[in-house]
Design a protein that fits this description.
Blueprint: H1 2-14, E1 29-32, E2 44-48, H2 49-52, E3 63-65, E4 70-74, H3 76-83, H4 87-106, E5 114-118, H5 121-134, H6 151-158, E6 169-175, E7 181-191, E8 194-203, E9 206-212, E10 223-224, E11 231-235, E12 255-259, E13 264-269
Bound molecules: zinc ion.
């Protein structure tokens, strides 16, 4: 009886939270980032990028999870529809590319360093952007949702408006040959007086970057993805390998970036 009351109490408390994709009140549901099906879900540790990155980084022990990196920030409906109906596209892309990448690195005399896979870009981006929105602290669910020029079009796109990003965002991708995963819901890059807000979700074999439209700030080696594209071409050459993991730039001269710890997650498999 006592246990039941405590459980009900917990449900009541969580219903005060806003879900980060649709903005409605309700019980929160867990989202795996990276999504299940596109990676082998293993034991991982999670840290904030701000804890391990930069001059004053203190080595910290990560927070362990036995089955991947999870965020309880979205509702069941968004989890089942916006993400659940499109996650298969991410899984298909990852599997097709991984197969070809394995083949490329085994075959010593491949004539080209590119791999290729067909894709449904809208489905792929809808799921990737949904996971970017979900990968944040539950504290964000306690705030009143508001219109935001950067996030509102992303939410509308994830909820089904195929044209929501036309005037607001560009999308880029590149080869990400690493075991760790990175997700940053928003960061701001300043490059010689140009500024741009961006989001990133990276896990093998691709880094996926959202930027404000037309700002022209993206790393060397990044390829622009249009929602009308029918395929992905990924360059496996080592030319830009130093710029494959965040921050993907040297940060020299008048270059810097701003980010919030709770929205900047690094997770890595542990044994
Ligand atoms: Zn929702």
């Amino acid at each position: 009886m006592m246990l039941l009351r405590q459980f009900n109490n917990r449900v009541a408390l969580s219903s005060c939270n806003r879900r980060v994709i649709c903005g409605k009140y309700g019980r929160l549901s867990k989202d795996h980032v990276p999504p299940q099906g596109s990676i082998t879900v293993t034991k991982v540790e999670q840290v904030h990028l701000t804890e391990v990155f930069g001059l004053n980084a203190n080595p910290v022990k990560g927070i362990p999870s036995t089955n991947g990196s999870k965020f309880r920030t979205i509702c069941r409906e968004c989890n089942m529809t916006a993400l659940g109906e499109n996650d298969g596209e991410i899984a298909d892309v990852c599997k097709a590319l991984t197969r070809q990448i394995n083949h490329f690195f085994r075959a010593a005399n491949s004539p080209t360093s590119h791999v290729y896979t067909p894709l449904n870009a809208v489905k792929y981006c809808r799921a990737m952007i949904g996971h970017i929105l979900a990968a944040t602290s539950v504290n964000e669910c306690r705030r009143e949702p508001c219109e935001a020029p950067y996030f509102t079009p992303l939410q509308q796109f994830v909820l089904g408006d195929d044209h929501a990003l036309e005037d607001t965002h560009d999308i880029y991708y590149w080869f990400f040959p690493h075991k760790h995963h990175q997700s940053i819901k928003i960061f701001r890059m300043v490059n010689e007086g140009n500024e741009c807000s961006m989001s990133i979700l990276s896990f093998f074999p691709l880094a996926f970057l959202l930027t404000e439209k037309g700002k022209g700030i993206y790393p060397a080696g990044a390829v622009k993805l249009e929602l009308s594209d029918k395929s992905l071409f990924v360059d496996l050459s080592a030319l830009n390998i130093d710029f494959s993991t965040f921050p993907a730039v040297e940060l020299k001269g008048n270059q810097f970036l701003l980010m919030a710890g709770s929205m900047s997650i690094l997770s890595y498999p542990i044994t």
